[in-house]
């Protein structure tokens, strides 16, 4: 089996699908010859030609709107928005036009589009390159939201996203692109959209995370184990639809949970997860479910982001709080 | 003073017109080649559209329609531009562009359902090449570029046309679309129906540009201005643009100078922002009168024909509004099921609250 880092795995997924389906296209800013600013699409234009993988003028709303138009004609665009903060320029086309296409047309049209974007902090990028904007997408009926945490999942989820007949917002954490390599099967395989993954089993507390925070959670769990605390870690993988069943099963066992997100604390994924835990598992809880998150400020300038972002120590502290409640 | 080479110049534009206000051909070079039957069909559609608009306004007042944007005055623009296309060309409309949809094949009762806020209004039949009306100003202009790119990639000799107004030409999406169309040389026609007002804001407050057509220059596409009260001029402009697009010569921006005789929607008062003099001036340019005179002189049309079409339109509208009213009501579970191809478990749960 091949060893790939996450960006290689995502590229491999796109290569598999470009080969399999002539309707799959990749476009965005600088995705062609250079292969994107992070080289995620490197080599794909060379392999599949400029008709399939092409650069666009610099205009995010047009990239997304082009995808919507092409989607109505049976193409399956993979549209790259170069950095997450630039999705604001494309919000109408992504969150209104694409996400409502099936609904507005009563099923006559759909928008089988993958909107790819890098996001995520800890890499000292420029302002508006790293923010966690998945919460915005969660407020958008009609859009699926995926945030992989490792190369294997990234490939399987990307293939599923490309094959999905509804729009998918696929968020790729910058800090994970080249963080580590893992075994990734050759060829095609899929991971079901909407299924969480228990990445570490435990009996004392459930730590729910996604993206880079899965690794922060695992680091915290390893620290906690030294003092005899067995934490179960769940990687959400898909934020919408959310796999509440896996979370509830875990809480039935552990009776305690915390949710970790990079995004600002208020009204985000963690708030949604906790609301759903309240609806489905409140009688299994021995303590309130806590959030570990960024504070409610603008995502900070680079020099302070390491302090701003949730750390294993902050996760461990939250675990102690729910255990001692 | 001579032109300075380092300053970009844009010469004034004169709108393309074919007919005088009296229905005489003043520019025979631009007269589109149409048979007598075709000329009568065009008049039929314009008279029908006017009568349907009159009836729709009444239906709106009776509460039998929902949001409705009147179209009287714009028949030459709407009917003529659609008539210049093939049925496999794609129409990407704004909210006022219902006549183009219907003449392109959308059943009238579905247009009424759309107005009433029924989802089936947007369920365009599979063989009808239109998008449902767009509410976000200018969003459809980008969709047309995407559809045009799909045609180009598949080597199809098809064209996408999109409509917006003078207000829509101020939106960012409009410029992004023009620029993409220029950069990729896409078979798309941007029809801007400049009816003088973006709701109530007059054109002179919309832009400092001397015309909307000039905006094509910066995008590297062809810009054309046309007298939008002259249906033959509109047909000529759109036919030429479609031919260029099919020949791989790229996109055209057509500014169609037109006027809406009624307010922007059923809920605004045009007397607050328009003068009687202005309305009277535009009334003289009424596309039905002008084209009607042309046909009368050719012996192709009479007042009786107009009356007959009006009656036919009334009967058709009545039949379709009844069909719309008899269409099964929407349900919340049905709406939930239209969010995704396969309804996810969490939405199945939410459905249960409404069953």
Automatic annotation (TrEMBL), chain A:
Gene3D superfamilies, per the entry: 3.40.50.920, 3.40.50.970
SUPFAM superfamilies hit by this protein: Thiamin diphosphate-binding fold (THDP-binding) (SSF52518), TK C-terminal domain-like (SSF52922)
Cofactor(s) needed by this chain: thiamine diphosphate
InterPro entries: THDP-binding, Transketo_C/PFOR_II, Transketolase-like_Pyr-bd, Transketolase_C
Organism for this UniProt entry: Paenibacillus protaetiae
Keywords recorded for this protein, A-Z: Oxidoreductase, Thiamine pyrophosphate
Protein name per Swiss-Prot or TrEMBL: Alpha-ketoacid dehydrogenase subunit beta
UniProt KW Oxidoreductase keyword: yes
NCBIfam families (alphabetical): PRK09212.1
MF (Gene Ontology): oxidoreductase activity
Domain of life per record: Bacteria
Oxidoreductase found in the keyword field: yes
Domain Transketolase-like pyrimidine-binding: 4-179
TrEMBL record, chain B:
Catalytic activity: N(6)-[(R)-lipoyl]-L-lysyl-[protein] + pyruvate + H(+) = N(6)-[(R)-S(8)-acetyldihydrolipoyl]-L-lysyl-[protein] + CO2
GO terms of molecular function: pyruvate dehydrogenase (acetyl-transferring) activity
Gene3D superfamilies per UniProt: 3.40.50.970
Domain Dehydrogenase E1 component: 45-330
InterPro entries xrefs: Alpha-ketoacid_DH_E1_comp (IPR050771), DH_E1 (IPR001017), PdhA/BkdA (IPR017596), THDP-binding (IPR029061)
Keywords: Oxidoreductase, Pyruvate, Thiamine pyrophosphate
EC number: 1.2.4.1
Cofactor: thiamine diphosphate
Annotated GO biological process: branched-chain amino acid catabolic process
Pfam families, sorted: E1_dh
Function, as annotated: The pyruvate dehydrogenase complex catalyzes the overall conversion of pyruvate to acetyl-CoA and CO(2). It contains multiple copies of three enzymatic components: pyruvate dehydrogenase (E1), dihydrolipoamide acetyltransferase (E2) and lipoamide dehydrogenase (E3).
Summary of subunit composition and partner proteins: Heterodimer of an alpha and a beta chain.
Name the UniProt record assigns to this protein: Pyruvate dehydrogenase E1 component subunit alpha
Organism: Paenibacillus protaetiae
């Amino acid at each position: 089996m091949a060893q790939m880092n996450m960006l290689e795995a995502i590229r491999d997924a796109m290569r598999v699908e470009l080969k399999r389906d002539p309707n799959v296209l990749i476009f965005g800013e600088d995705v062609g010859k250079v292969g994107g600013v992070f080289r995620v699409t490197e080599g794909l234009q060379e392999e599949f030609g400029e008709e399939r993988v092409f650069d666009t003028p610099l205009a995010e709303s047009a990239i997304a709107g082009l995808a919507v138009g092409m989607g109505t004609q049976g193409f399956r665009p993979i549209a790259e928005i170069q950095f997450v903060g630039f999705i604001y320029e494309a919000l109408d086309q992504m969150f209104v036009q694409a996400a409502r296409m099936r609904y507005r047309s009563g099923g006559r049209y759909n928008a089988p589009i993958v909107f790819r974007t890098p996001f995520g902090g800890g890499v000292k990028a420029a302002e508006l390159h790293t923010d966690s904007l998945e919460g915005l997408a969660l407020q958008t009926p009609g859009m699926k939201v995926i945030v992989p945490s490792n190369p294997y999942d990234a490939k399987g989820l990307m293939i599923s996203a490309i094959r999905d007949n509804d729009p998918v917002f696929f968020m790729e954490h910058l800090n994970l692109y080249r963080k580590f390599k893992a075994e990734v099967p050759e060829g095609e395989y899929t991971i079901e959209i909407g299924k969480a993954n228990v990445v570490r089993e435990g009996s004392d507390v459930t730590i729910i995370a996604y993206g880079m925070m899965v690794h922060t959670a695992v680091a915290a769990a390893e620290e906690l184990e030294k003092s005899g605390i067995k934490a179960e870690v769940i990687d959400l993988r898909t934020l919408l639809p959310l796999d509440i069943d896996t979370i509830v099963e875990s809480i039935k066992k552990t009776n305690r949970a915390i949710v970790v997100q990079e995004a600002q604390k208020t009204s985000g994924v963690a708030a949604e997860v906790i609301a759903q835990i309240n609806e489905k598992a409140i009688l299994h809880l021995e303590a309130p479910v806590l959030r570990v998150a960024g504070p409610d400020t603008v995502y900070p300038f680079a020099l302070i982001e390491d302090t701003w972002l949730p750390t294993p120590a902050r996760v461990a502290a939250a675990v102690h709080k729910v255990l001692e409640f | 003073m001579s032109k300075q080479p380092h300053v970009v110049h844009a010469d004034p534009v004169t709108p393309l017109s074919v007919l005088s206000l009296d229905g005489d051909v003043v520019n025979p070079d631009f007269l589109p080649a149409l048979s007598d039957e075709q000329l009568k069909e065009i008049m039929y559609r314009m008279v029908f559209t006017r009568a349907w608009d009159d009836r729709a306004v009444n239906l709106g007042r009776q509460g039998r329609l929902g949001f409705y944007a009147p179209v009287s005055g714009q028949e030459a623009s709407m009917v003529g531009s659609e008539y210049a296309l093939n049925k496999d060309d794609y129409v990407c409309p704004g909210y006022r562009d219902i006549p183009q949809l219907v003449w392109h094949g959308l059943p009238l009762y579905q247009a009424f359902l759309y107005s009433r806020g029924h989802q089936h209004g947007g369920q365009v039949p599979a063989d009808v090449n239109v998008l449902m009306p767009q509410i976000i100003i200018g969003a459809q202009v980008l969709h047309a570029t995407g559809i045009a790119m799909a045609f180009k990639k598949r080597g199809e000799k098809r064209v996408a046309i999109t409509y917006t107004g003078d207000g829509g030409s101020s939106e960012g999406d409009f410029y992004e679309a023009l620029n993409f169309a220029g950069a990729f040389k896409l078979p798309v026609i941007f029809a801007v129906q400049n009816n003088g007002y973006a709701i109530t804001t007059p054109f002179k407050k919309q832009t400092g540009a001397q015309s909307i057509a000039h905006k094509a220059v910066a995008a590297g596409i062809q810009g054309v201005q046309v007298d939008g009260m002259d249906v033959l001029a509109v047909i000529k402009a759109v036919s030429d643009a479609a031919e260029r697009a099919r020949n791989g010569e790229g996109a055209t921006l057509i500014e169609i100078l037109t006027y809406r005789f009624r307010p922007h929607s059923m809920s605004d008062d045009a007397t607050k922002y328009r003068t009687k003099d202005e309305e009277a001036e535009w009334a003289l340019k009424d596309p039905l009168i002008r084209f009607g005179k042309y046909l009368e002189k050719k012996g192709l049309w009479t007042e009786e024909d107009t009356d007959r079409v009006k009656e036919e339109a009334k009967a058709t509208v009545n039949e379709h509004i009844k069909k719309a009213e008899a269409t099964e009501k929407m349900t919340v579970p049905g709406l939930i099921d239209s969010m995704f191809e396969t309804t996810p478990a969490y939405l199945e749960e939410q459905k249960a609250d409404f069953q």
